[in-house]
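Note to self: user wants both folds in one dump. Writing first protein now.
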Amino acid sequence: MNISEICIKRPVLALVLSLVLVVVGIMGFNDLNTRFFPKFEQNVINISTAYPGASAKLVESSITTPLEEGISGVQGIDTIISQSFQGESDIKLTLDYGVNVYEVANQIRDKVEQARVQLPTNINAPVVQVGWGNMELMDVGFTAPNENPKAIRDYLERNVIDQIEQIPGIADVEVAGANQYAMRIWLDPQKMAARGLSVNDVQMAIQNSNVELPAGEIKGSSINYPITAETKLNTADQFNNIIVKNDNGQVIRIKDIGQAQLGDDSADQSIVTLDGQPGVLLSINNATDANPLDAAKNVNHFLNQIRPHLPNGMKIVPSFDISAYMHGSIHEVYISIGIAILCVILVIFLFLGRLRTVAIPIATIPVCLIASFGAMYLLGFSINVITLLALVLSIGLVVDDAIVMLENIYRHIENGEKPLIAAIKGSKEITFPVIAMTITLAAVYAPIGLMQNQAANIFRSFAFTLAGAVLISGFVALTLSPMMCSRFLKAQGGEPKGYSRIIETIYERMAQGYQKILAAILNKRILVVFAAVLIAVGGFFLAKNIPMAFVPQEDMGFVIAAVSTSSGSSINTINRGLEQVASIFKQAPAVASVVTVADTNAKAFDSVFAMLKPFKDRKQSASQVADVINQKIKQIPGLNAAAFAPSFGGSMQHQLEFYLMGDTYSDLYAVSQKLINQLGNYPGLRVIQSNMRFDSQQYNMTVNRDIAGQLQVNIKDIDNTMAALYGGSKISTFDANGKTYNVYLQAQENDLHSLASINKFYVNNAQNKLIPLSNLISIKPILSQVVLPHYNRLRAAQMSAQLAPGYNLGTVVNYLQTELPQLLPANVKYAFTGQAHDLLTSNNSMGLIFLLAMVFIYLVLAAQFESFIDPFIILLAVPLSIVGAMASLKLIGGTLNIYTDIGLVTLIGLVSKHGILITQFANRLQKEGLAMREALLKAASIRLRPILMTTAAMVFGALPLLFSSGGSAQSRHQIGIVIIGGLIFGTFFSLVVVPVAYSYVYKFKLFLKRFKTTDEMSLSGK
């Protein structure tokens, strides 16, 4: 007695088993977290070290290189990418997937600590963080017509930014549009020299005057009262009145040798405009392991709370919110689930024609879907677009086993058996195919568990959710479905009437027609073999012509324009270029708002950011808007800019990135400039750039150590003086209204623009005499780099570009892989980063996954059929279904990406189900005594209806994906067309190729039988 028979005889047990699944699913659903994408393993560690005032070259040699050498022996590191800027070193470590990032981070911290002895003593301590590269969650602008941006920023620093950073899930907040306040002590070197003062004298005076220390306490009889000396300075006037020197009663104050003034905290400048209005922009970054939907919800709640309490005239200007796109995408998938359920119900009714009959497979949909949430919870997944996409496809799948069970039992009833007996017999006959089909489809995803990369992380959530739904549907088909058949179906009482009669007539004619066609095909088998080979070969060449991408190009509701200027360009020059692009955006009817961000910082990205109107309020996609903008940008002479619609997970700055590695930066500069010119002839790329640019005017100041020694001047005092006067040294802090600001010492602004001013500066020697700096140093103007990159400890140049309209990442990467080896010298290597790197690694892994999926499913079928030959027959239709999928994908102009890869692997399991039904039934009929040809024709014609029904259910279940809109629509379109096109082709070829292959293999089976012993024949029942 099998499980189906037990459930038929004990209907309450069958119902309870399904109710248990539903209860577990509801409990799991309540505890599941909703997010946009599956939670990824963190595999990035960042090491950041500040060295104020140091040049990029000094940062590279004294910080970046020693740290890279120190951490190079740590196991589990895939790539090391570093960038040395003026005053800062950033090292990004990408780990191998599967490595425990926190264990490696602890090892990195130990190595960094060991390397500290090699680093300069006046640096800030290196900071090691896990999960660098946090996702930008939203941009929020603030404007105030009556306030300058600096005042706006000061208000935000005091009242808003710190509170946002305390919100769970928020990593940090970056500010653009204004600098923080700082106290700037501008020194006049000539006045200092006239009074015999050096920079060290001024610095010591300020530091000694600006302190706040406990002065003791007054002890009372019962209470002690602490005393604090209020000596901390707060205003520019107080700093101006600091006494630097008292020379025989002549008091010299700061205001006598310069001026203290409230100014900017940084020499770098930034301008932000929000729809033309100056303001301040907060870029709020989501922590790598946090849920962006929850974080965005909390941030928006906070902003709504503070909005009524903002200063008079200050407004919050929402600029960008990725969570809106995420919510829209998830909502669209839920809509697709609802439509898919209706489509599948309609298909089942059209095929069966009776409501009582239709109720049986339909009942499996809510049971399996709800229970799937329980499986997702147990697997540690979340509700996201990937797992919901799996549930959309599962709607057509979960009814498959129930349909097969129902159809087989219904056939027995048509033959005159009572429903109870028909249910027992029919379920017994179909138990093996149901188990085989269920395990087969689940087994196709088994290789995913063996893969370790970003694509596998995405794929795993989809695959295991869908596999869980299929396994649950198999269980329900063997328990609830036969029980319902025994209770809901009625004994055959004469000829069917009405719509049922029409359906039965159509099916009988189709079965008869198919049987005749198949009989004719079996007589011309060689033509089928020839056609199948021809189609498979054609499919191979077709696949070669389909472009590749890591993810489809989605419409995320915004467009970015990158504007390139030369290093050292003034803030006004940068802003003028941005304003030109912004004016073009404002003319586009699809654009809702425009933000420009100009910044002189070498790490900053000068850009125009355009938010588009909601999908329903515009006719153009983000890519189409970008194409129109680019056409107009070309008409502006001298403007080096390009607009593009970013892909989710891709760079917000460049669509293509790769590194060149060589021996020297001068060689890399020459190679990169030559490459820019050569690649400029390729129509697929625009705005090709290199960060290796020798266009930063700098001055190399060299200390004459011999003269310094003779004059008894300390080298460190020379360095400190130069750093203070030209670099602006932070020497102290001051408090104002509860907030702490920095104090900087610097030469007056007029003296910062001319090298001749060096003649005005002096430094003390050991006898406290003033020695002119010009006697101690030599100055040489040079053109240098703003940033010095390394890739895997090799000196490198980062190349970047935008893609031209009509070109995708896969096509461009293929071109570069062909051309770069020919264009680059032998001593220069290259490596892709960003989505280009993800594309290449995912392609390599997906090819292996596809191969392993075929191997796994073959082995599972071999074990189930106790044959190595039958699985070969079943799987023959799979390559042909892939051809159908490729042709469909080509038809809509799609790409091969991780979503289509998911669909292709899923097709292996879907199409093999048809072969299982035909092969298993033909084998059984032969055991019952029918000849091979007769058994094959009968099995194929009898299994025609369940094959067509399951295919129609799956196709119509996937149809909503093909016609969906809104966020992530392209991803749904492309996986939908792969499933639909591949399944239609695969079903057709299963009905033709599988019988032909079965007939050919039959003779081979007869040949093998000759070598079986009598005992083996009796054990196998043959």
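First done. Writing the second protein, which came from a different request thread.
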Amino acid sequence: MGHCYSRNISTVDDDDEIPAGIAQLPHRSDQNHHQSSSSIPQSPATSEVNPYTISPFQSPLPAGVAPSPARTPGRKFKWPFPPPSPAKPIMAALRRRRGTAPHPRDGPIPEDSEDIDHGRASGSGGGIGERLDKNFGFAKNFEGKYELGREVGRGHFGHTCWAKAKKGKIKGQTVAVKIISKTKMTSALSIEDVRREVKLLKALSGHSHMVKFYDVFEDSDNVFVVMELCEGGELLDSILARGGRYPEPDAKRILVQILSATAFFHLQGVVHRDLKPENFLFTSKNEDAILKVIDFGLSDYARFDQRLNDVVGSAYYVAPEVLHRSYSTEADIWSIGVISYILLCGSRPFYGRTESAIFRCVLRANPNFEDLPWPSISPMAKDFVKRLLNKDHRKRMTAAQALAHPWLRDENPGLLLDFSIYKLVKSYIRASPFRRAALKSLSKAIPEEELVFLKAQFMLLEPEDGGLHLHNFTTALTRYATDAMIESRLPDILNMMQPLAHKKLDFEEFCAAAVSVYQLEALEEWEQIATTAFEHFEREGSRAISVQELAEEMSLGPNAYPLLKDWIRSLDGKLNFLGYAKFLHGVTMAPVKRRVFKTKNEMAVELAKFTADLSSKFCKERGIFTVVLSGGDLIAWLWKLLEAPYIDSIEWSKWHIFWVDERVCAWDNVDSNYKLAYDGFLSKVPIPAENIYAIDNGLGAEGNAELAAERYEECLKQKVNQNIIRTYKSSGFPQFDLQLLGMGPDGHMASLFPGHDQINEKVKWVTSITDSPKPPPKRITFTLPVINCASYNVMAVCDKEQADSVAAALTHTKDLPAGRLTADVEVVWFLDQAAASKLPHGWCSIL
């Protein structure tokens, strides 16, 4: 059976899928529709993520955030989205480049008779029998202006050729022509994608690191996009030609160019969605050649108040939030972090033999910064990459911030206006005085290195008389505006900044307005920053505040009162340090659902379905399902999982079992929660013994509660280090996928009893108790912060003797441990009709 030293679980599963490849670096994929003139042999195209399949990583959009109007909900692309292509070892790739691999065959793009558009929402166009209008209104005289030459690349929709201008301003100049086949446009959305790509290329063409757009034409069969010819090959070619990695000075030069282009199109409200080495081309083969970003075929507009939700991109470079279907420009920053990692060390930060294995690594594994060559790479370079590869998109640097990072500063990158400043200032000027005071205190603790960026942004807004007004923000945004910015409607944010028309922000208050709490939290010195900020707040901004007022400040309801009570000092009614830190972040309370059933049998049926659905979700997302059990009647209610269809369909081998509390006794003792679970459930399902983590049997038999709690906490920390258990955001507490809890008639849950000090424990993960009101007296239990960090918490309660406590816990008329239950995603109370009988009328409908 599993214990503190059970085996590590690999992040790569042996799937029955076609391998995505085994290697250090991605080789060339011939699925990139770009205009590289390099003749380096292409490798065969391979299986991509199937966009017909509904992603297993669905999560709701954040509260108050509307889906992008440019997207059809649940949109599925009819073409595979680009790589991962099979990754070959670096030396093998170099050998191919010496001529041992065949050149790609020339010829027309094969027609795909099965290329149909599946699963379109009604009204999207292109339905059965509906004739699509593929006339874009572009000029028709391509052959009169350009002489078409050899093919230089192939892509999803078409191919790219070399051409020479016969007339016009660029007469005699060689160009690249991207030829997009209209035959491949099988839906209204695919037609709109081409139209949008052309509009974006045209709007963004002016930047020095964006490929130049010259013209666009069409005939009955194709669209011809005329662009600058980049003859230096792809960035991937350059990486491989250098043996797989760049020295730091050269990597910095590359990254400054990538970030400069990215900062520019992000300011226009455009997210690229497929940044990778294959999509950056050098203008020539000279050492000092300029790098250009290409291929906006998957790009979209990212409005400031909306999140995109379709899963597109390349598996090795895709951000975690893309898999969760809620993302914006931060997803591009993650991709640049992957590119940075590859440039510096020559290998990928996330690797798997299959696409699903890659996704699991992206979601739960951490990049390796310990193996060679990382010890020889500067600490500043490592810090730079880590701040791009933060799984919490709120903590990543923006492209403009990355250009101001100390590691890149000696490259003298030209800084660009950062639109995130606008969003932060908008929130600040609309915040309450109490929150503004908290942010002002935080701004006084900002490290000098972080102030460099804020000073640069302040100057880009061109302050007058030492301060900023609304017109400064308006003028600055207008200065950089292109048609893409208008299309993404970013200037609409100015309407929400009207209070600045009658207010001036000096630099000190600008720092308070423009500081990102989450990005500061990503710094190693965050604890010192927060401590210093709290000291300023105590001296200058703090005041007594009631639980009700604090809840209103944070837009929380009465169910948050028990949680907020712990953030206020009883001595003077002011926020304590924990409360100040939480207040800066803001808290979103998980929804609390109540489901009432006529009988225990009906409740068991639904509890089994709920558990099985979550098992499927987390096994697909993470390859692991962490489940926390409790004692009492809960085990008896899991019996439906032992029947069809669940017993044969659940991936039991991926379950990992823990206990929220345990009686300090031997496993075979009748009071043991482990024995209860084993006899009634675990012995009947094929969960591997090494995946079951019980209390130390020897310490249980000895009755050593304190040491048993310490050992179980050590066990949990080891499972965190092995990536079996996730950690909750910044708190560092373990985050389990599902906790199945019960409640006693006195309102206790786990072994947290009313009136006991253990309910207020804020540091430990597991604590001990020696005076339980219920025998046996010695127990260990998860602390409340650990319980409340779970993704999903289920409270299952039956019988009339529990009715008073159920009502008190859910209405918060008494301060009961069960009334403090929350979760990261959702809390669900499963109640039978008797247990729910004292709830206020209308609170629950019987299912």
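Dump finished. Worth passing along: The radius of gyration is 29 Å.
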